[in-house]
Every structure is written in structure tokens, then in C-alpha cells.
Design goal:
The complex is a heterodimer of chains A (about 100) and B (about 230).
Chain A: H1 3-23, H2 32-55, E1 56-57, E2 60-61, H3 66-78, H4 83-99
Antiparallel strand pairs in A: 1-2
Helix pairs in contact in A: 3-4
Chain B: H1 2-31, H2 36-46, H3 49-60, H4 65-90, H5 97-102, H6 106-114, H7 118-150, H8 158-170, H9 177-193, H10 201-205, H11 207-216, H12 227-231
Helix pairs in contact in B: 1-3, 1-7, 1-8, 2-7, 3-4, 4-6, 6-7, 9-11
The chains are: A mainly alpha (about 100), B mainly alpha (about 230).
Chain lengths: ~100, ~230
């Protein structure tokens, strides 16, 4: 698959999933266990993405400026600071540590 | 009278915040090796921040196409659930359904369902959905255009911003012990697998945690989510 195939295929699937919400019988997703598994699946993926985006570099684990930036972000989310402020603060933390040569 | 203006204010502030963050998506997409058209196709057609950043994350890490597509698709499943709720609550006309489906994302769903009144729900959905769509695409374009000039996005901490964004999407979902346990275990599992599996695969495999905990309801409370069930 070329990069174009990846982009188009993923986009079409995500769009189809949105359309499915308006056309499949709601019963498919009903039931306590099924809705719990679906909700937990989203949690699993988001947590894994956050961890790998913070610590991963290709197939290596690298501790660099992303780690303190993530700590700042988590503290701010915990303190209920608005989303966009947290995102900017996380970027600034990593950028500042790198500019000062304190972290890679 | 101020109910509808409150909905407008809320919708537009959500749209404005999301749009700001579109700049970092655009710049990161270019840094991950996508061209301008591919970046715009993602924001215009996929139009779901979590899935878009997930696709970039896997591609930038050198992951395979299948892992990239699968990760963004699995994250997209929550939009299906939003669609089911919105279809039930807002009862849209058949003609507007495709447009409504396309605008069904975290933000539009959250704003819509935060109002009690049906008319305000519709207003919240459409203003937020259209607002985010326009803002997100405009700022993606800006980010992609300046992305080339920026050089290394790490200098600006954009890699850390993407990580923080995933945590931001995750945070409101950590409502109970079970959710927190699944989040922590998934993060640990995915990190541990990074050195031994191809990029992107560790993220997908973290879903095993959700499947096991969700099926057995380990750490779960019986009545917390659906108290109605207990009577049945």
C-alpha cells in the first residue's frame, strides 16, 4: 500500500463508521457488556497512543523532553485546565527544555 | 433567549479551541511524511482528530499501513456509538443524515448532549460540528503550509502536544477504578511491546486489556453505569 492508499482507506473506514451509527440497529451495540467493552477499547487505545507517543521512537524507548511535558499536561488536566491551554503548555514545556539544552 | 446564545457561545469556544490545535496536526502531518493533499484529505474526509493523530503516530514511528489503518479505524468506532445516540436523541431528517454523520465527532456530540432541550441539542450539534469542521480544516491547511518552513517539529514541542492531546481525550473517560486500571495497564503493555513488535502493533494489542477486563467486568461495579439493569 502506498501512503495514499493508507490515507484514503483509513478515511473511508472512519467515515463509514460514522454513517453506520445512523443506519445500524441500535441493538447491535446495546447490552451492558458490549457497551463496556467498547468504552474500554477506546480507553485502551488512547492510553496506549499517549504512552507510545511519549516514550516511543521507532522501535526504541526514549526518555526525553516529552516525559516532563506529559507530566505537566496530566497535572493540568487533573486541575481541570481547558484542553487547548494544556496542549499549548505541553508543547511549550518540551520546547523550552530542548531550547535550554536540558532534555533531548 | 439567553439559552440559545449560551449554546452558540459554548459551541464556538469549543470550535475555536479545536481549530487552534489543527495547526499542530497540519505541521505534524507534513513532518510525518504526508504531502499537503494527503494531510487535507485526512482533515476533510476522515475528520476525527483522534483517528487522524493515531494514523500519523503509527506512520511517523515507521509502522505498517495495516497497523495505521486498523488503529485509526478502531478509534473511529466511538463515532458509531455517538451516531446511535444522536440519531435517537435528535431524530434528524433522512436527507441531512449523511452530513450529520460526517460532523459526528467528540466535540459536536458532547456539546449536543450537554443541553436538555431538543432544539438546543440540535443547535449545539450543528454550530459545533460546522464550526469545528471549518476551523479544523482551515488551521490544518495553515499548519501544513508552515510545517515545511518550521523544520523539526520537536523544536516546538509538537510531538509532546500530540501526546498530551491523547491524554486530553482520555481524561474525561477515566470515570471509575476500572477505567483507570485499563488505561494504566494498556499504557504499560503498549510501551513494553514497543521494542519487540513492529511500530503500531503494540498500540493495537493494548485492546486485549479492554477485551479481558470488559468481558469479565474485573474491578467493575454492577450498577454504576446502567442502574436500570439491576431492576431487570
Amino acid at each position: 500500500m502506498t501512503l495514499w492508499h493508507t490515507v484514503l482507506l483509513a478515511s473511508i473506514i472512519v467515515l463509514a463508521l460514522k454513517l453506520a451509527g445512523y443506519s445500524v440497529p441500535a441493538a447491535w451495540f446495546a447490552g451492558e457488556r458490549r457497551s463496556r467493552v467498547l468504552e474500554l477499547t477506546t480507553i485502551s487505545l488512547l492510553a496506549a497512543l499517549a504512552a507510545v507517543q511519549t516514550l516511543g521512537q521507532g522501535e526504541l524507548i526514549v526518555v526525553d523532553a516529552r516525559v516532563p511535558a506529559m507530566a505537566v499536561a496530566m497535572l493540568m488536566f487533573w486541575a481541570k485546565v481547558p484542553f487547548i491551554v494544556v496542549i499549548i503548555a505541553a508543547a511549550l514545556t518540551a520546547a523550552a527544555l530542548r531550547a535550554l539544552g536540558l532534555a533531548g | 433567549m439567553n439559552t440559545s446564545s449560551a449554546v452558540w457561545r459554548k459551541s464556538l469556544s469549543v470550535a475555536g479551541a479545536t481549530a487552534l490545535y489543527g495547526v499542530s496536526f497540519g505541521a505534524l502531518a507534513i513532518a510525518s511524511g504526508l504531502d499537503l493533499m494527503q494531510t487535507m484529505v485526512l482533515s476533510l474526509l476522515m475528520f476525527s482528530g483522534g483517528s487522524q493523530f493515531a494514523l500519523l503516530g503509527v506512520i511517523a514511528a515507521g509502522g505498517g499501513a495495516a497497523a495505521a489503518v486498523a488503529t485509526s479505524a478502531v478509534l473511529g468506532v466511538r463515532n458509531t456509538l455517538y451516531g446511535i445516540s444522536l440519531n435517537t436523541e435528535l431524530r434528524p431528517r433522512r436527507a441531512v443524515m449523511p452530513v450529520m454523520a460526517h460532523l459526528t465527532i467528540d466535540e459536536s456530540t458532547a456539546v449536543a448532549l450537554s443541553s436538555a432541550d431538543a432544539r438546543m441539542r440540535r443547535l449545539g450539534f450543528w454550530v459545533t460540528g460546522v464550526g469545528v469542521f471549518v476551523g479544523w480544516n482551515a488551521t490544518t491547511l495553515i499548519g501544513a503550509l508552515v510545517g515545511d518552513l518550521l523544520g523539526d517539529v520537536r523544536t516546538y514541542g509538537l510531538d509532546a502536544a500530540a501526546a498530551a492531546a491523547f491524554i486530553g481525550l482520555l481524561w474525561p473517560r477515566l470515570k471509575n477504578r476500572q477505567a483507570v486500571a485499563v488505561g494504566v495497564a494498556s499504557a504499560v503493555l503498549a510501551t513494553a511491546l514497543v521494542p519487540v513488535l513492529p511500530a503500531g502493533v503494540p498500540i493495537l494489542l493494548s485492546v486485549v486489556v479492554a477485551l479481558v477486563v470488559g468481558t469479565t467486568n474485573w474491578l467493575g461495579t454492577k450498577s454504576k453505569k446502567t442502574p436500570v439493569k439491576e431492576a431487570a
